[in-house]
Amino acid sequence: MYRKLVRYDQWHFAEVDPVCLRRMAIRLRDLIVQKVDRSNDIYGFYSSTMPVIEAAIRGEITESMDEDESHFISRNYYHDKSEGSLPPEYDQDFMTAVAEFSVTAEALSLEDFDEVLLDGVTYGWVDFEEPGDWPDKVKHS
Asked: Is CB count within 10 Å lower at the N or C end of the chain?
């Protein structure tokens, strides 16, 4: 792990942790392949989410994504989840993987951080993973 000073924009950081994002993407990709029937993909995981996952695995995502703008997880998925009406294959493990990937891709802070103000811009110190840190040196699995 190493610490990096990253710009903070009211609700998320400007950069993602690419090593952590790759790890979360691989987990979600594997669960999508295992649990989502490609011919009955009602939430568009193959069409909307998988391209983002594959880009994350390739290391192409370095800036935080705004899920409100890019919609890489279906609004219908979130609606049905909040209603408790997801199909049974979308179990707790799957929902956790979706949430972890989303939070990491959006570079949302999972803990308090010390704000640093530089030239009127807010920054925060963020822990970034290095290859080989998993599982012993990471804060969030």
From this structure: C
Using the predicted structure, report yes or no on whether residue 141 has a pLDDT greater than 80. Answer: no
Contacts of 101 (CB under 8 A, 6+ apart): 21, 24, 25, 27, 28, 53, 56
Q: How far apart are CA 133 and CA 34, in angstroms?
A: 26
pTM over 0.85: yes
End-to-end CA distance of the chain: 14
CB-based contacts of 83, cutoff 8 Å, min separation 6: none
State pLDDT tens for residues 28-69.
999 999 999 999 999 999 999 999 999 999 999 999 998 766
